[in-house]
Amino acid sequence: MKRAAAVKRRHVLAAAGGLAAVAAGLGRPAIAAMKTFRVGVLGVMSGPDAAWGLHNKFCAIATANMYNAVGGFEIGGEKYGIEVSAMDDQLDPKIAVAGAEKLTQEDGLRYVIGPNVDTTALSIKPVMERNKAIYIPYAFNKTLYTPPAENAILGMIASYEAGPIIYEYLIKTRGIKTIAFLAANEPDPLNQQQAGVAAAEKLGLDVLVKDATYQASATDFFPVVSPIVKKKPDLLVLSGVAPATAPLLIKAARELGYKGLLSTETAQDIKILTEGAGKYAEGFISVGGASTPEIRSAYMESFVKEYAKAAGQWDDEAGTKVYALEMVLHTIAKAGPQAIDDTSVYKAAIDSFTMPNPFLKSASTLQYVGQAYFGQKRQIGVPMVVNEVKDGSFQTLFVGSVA
């Protein structure tokens, strides 16, 4: 299965320079007379890794449509219609910069969700800071979130946060003692691999393979997986693996006779896993969101349906992306209408902001975190939901936190 199959969606847009834009349209006649809050989405929406950016886009559109359908979102006693402008950066830093300039300079947006990887997130940093815009990358480079940087907010749990928690859980519950790491030969996966190795060594695990890599364009993974399988690690970590590559690596490892555990700190899609790896996907462990049915709130169930309308079907990995626009809207509501155009007002509200988590059945609180890792609160404190594939579906293995 080619990695592009990860996206078999019909909403990838094409335009000159690789940029594309779309507005959330449901309920548009009802919001025409209201004030409008515009939010941008900038990420990879075409090519083999398109699923990442498309999930950001469709999550934002689904959230916007839900609020627009009930008359808008209230800020300072007034209802605002929500409009989403999405742009494809094609995973290219130069195109990402052009997209950031379009959204923040030409269109005047002050809030952007994305990009999806370190290279594109770092490339737009000067643009976002110059234009005093808040952005929510799904990238793990700490310099994005560490002072003096203050405009980027990490939208999910980083691999260096999730890794130690997952490994410790597997030490206690599955008795793992040895571990190996495999990553694509690209900056993001390599950084995640290094962080995973450091965490594993700190926990006392015997790291049998530290630096195995494959080319992102590879389709035959047997040559790189075979030497690892021969070492028989208790856990093989696929560092930073893209959703469409994961099933190929899983299948290669199992067909070579690997009997241990397989995991990753990146979110995955159950349909892609089961279509690509079949029975071999069983037992695969990955980070998820508020997506497994047993932990969803009624609001999350409604969101899943709205997402499916926008994207054509529900994708489990979208469960990691549901939080961004909700946090932006509710933080602005707390800070006041001035925060719509003045992000300094938004940033001043971050430290004390809390709200009930609308996506989980169990009572929990959403807030900004990151003080321990970044020296300031520049991370959405999403719950760390860890999933395991059981009988062809994701089941929640455990729910942790980095708060």
Note the main attributes of this structure.
Rossmann fold, 2 domains, five-stranded mixed β-sheet, 403 residues, 13 helices, globular, disordered N terminus, single chain, alpha/beta
Structural account:
By secondary structure, this protein is an alpha/beta fold. 37% of the residues lie in helices and 21% in strands. The protein has two domains: 3-156 and 297-382, 3-Layer(aba) Sandwich (Rossmann fold); 159-292 and 386-400, Response regulator (Rossmann fold, 3-Layer(aba) Sandwich). It is built from 13 helices and 15 strands. Strands 7-6-8-9-10-14-15 form a seven-stranded mixed sheet, with helices on both faces. Strands 2-3-1-4-5 form a five-stranded mixed sheet, with helices on both faces. Strands 11-12-13 form a three-stranded antiparallel sheet. The radius of gyration is 20 Å and the shape is globular.
